[in-house]
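INFO batch 0412 | record 1 of 1 | parsing
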Amino acid sequence: MTTEGEPVFVIDPGIPNIDAGPDFFNAKIRIGDIVWVGNVEIHERASNWFAHHHDKDKAYNSVILHIVKDNNTSVRRTDNEVIPQMIFHVPKIIEDNIEWLLSRDTPVACVERISNIKPLHLSGWMAALLSERLERKTHDIYTRLKNHSKDWNEVFYITLMRNFGFNTNSDAFELLAGSLPYKYLLKHRNNPSQIEALFFGQAGLLDASTNDTRVSTHDTSPLGTQSSQTNLSNLPDPYYQTLRREYDFLSKKYNLRPLDAFLFKNLRTRPVNFPHVRLAQIAAVWINNDLLFSKVLEAGNAKDLRALFNVSPSEYWRTHYNFHSVSVARKKFIGRNATDIILINTVIPVLFAYGKNKNLPVFCDRALRLLEEIKPEQNSIVNIFCNAGITVNNAGDTQALIQLRREYCDKKKCLYCRIGFKLIGK
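INFO prediction complete | emitting C-alpha cells
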C-alpha cells in the first residue's frame, strides 16, 4: 500500500541502476487502478529525497514510486507534484543475516552454511558463474583483437604468453609479447636458436650485467646446483654467447628494444617456474608448432591439445635453471598440470571468443566440452569451497568457483550471489 492507502502491484521491477540517477529504470507498477511506467527511487528515510537534492533534479521527475523505510515527509518533483510513496518493512531476521554476511572478516563469509544450499540450486548458480567467467575472458580477448587489427594469431600468441607467466610473471610475459610481434617469430620459425634468442634477448636476459649466476635463495630443493659468482665476462658460455650474437643481429634488423630484466621475477617461485625455464619452454612450443593457433582450431579434444604442448626445451636447459649455473640433469618439459592450466586460461577462452566472434557455435561448444574433460584445478580457492561441501567434477566447476570468490566473495557482493540470497532468509 502507498502511504495514501492505495494498493501497489509490481508488474516489472525494471533494471537496477548502478550509476547516477534513480535506483531502478523502466519499472512497471500498478498503483490503484492505474499502470505507471517509469523509475523507482529507494531511501532509508523519505527526507533523503531533499538531502540528496532530488527535488531540484529533473532526472528524478520520471520517478513513479518512492520506497522508504521511514516515512518522515512527503516528496515532490521539480514542478511540486507529489510522488507516491510506499513504506517497505524488512524483517529483522533478514537485516541481521545481511549484517552477518557483510561484516564477517573471512575470505568466504558463508563458508559454514553453504552445505545448507540444495545441490540443484548450487548447480544452476555454478553454470551461471562459468558463463560469467567466460564472458569476462571473452571481453579481454576482444580488447586484444581490437588493438591488433583483428589478427587472431597475434591475439592467441599474446594470451598464451601472458598465461605462461603463471601469475608471478604474467604481466612481464604479456609485455614481452607486446614488444616482440608474432610475425618476427614466424619469419624465423625454422631456426630454433633465433627463436630462443628473440625471447631471451627481448626479456633483457642476454645482458651480461643483469645475469646473476646464482640460483634464487628461495630455491631450497636438492638440485645439486653448482653456484658460481664469477663475472660472466670471465666465464664464456657457448650457448649464451650464441644467443647473444643472434639477438644483437635480430634486434638491429627489427629495431627491437629489450625489456628490463628486473621485470621477470625469481623470488618466491620454484626453480621450474623461473622465467628462464618458462621462456625456454614457450620457445620450444613455437619452434615445434609454428602455426599453433591453426592447430588449436583443428584439435578435437584435450588429448590432442596437450600434445601441442608436450615439448621440452633445448638440451642446454636439461642442466640449467638460468644461464651458466649448472644443475643436476633434469628434463624441463611442461608438466600435465601446467598444460591443463594453459588449456583452461588460454586455449578454451580463445576458442570460445573465436566461436562467438565468427558466429561458429561449434567452437563455443568445444570450449565447454573441454572444460568437462579436464580434471578440477587444485588451488586455495577451490579447496575452501570443497571443504565447505561443494562437489567439483571438472575444470568448469573450478572456474565457476574462482569467479564466485573473486567477483562476489572478495567484493562482498553477497546480496547479488544466489547463495547469499538464499541464506538471507534462513
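INFO post-check: The chain has 16 helices and six strands.
INFO record closed
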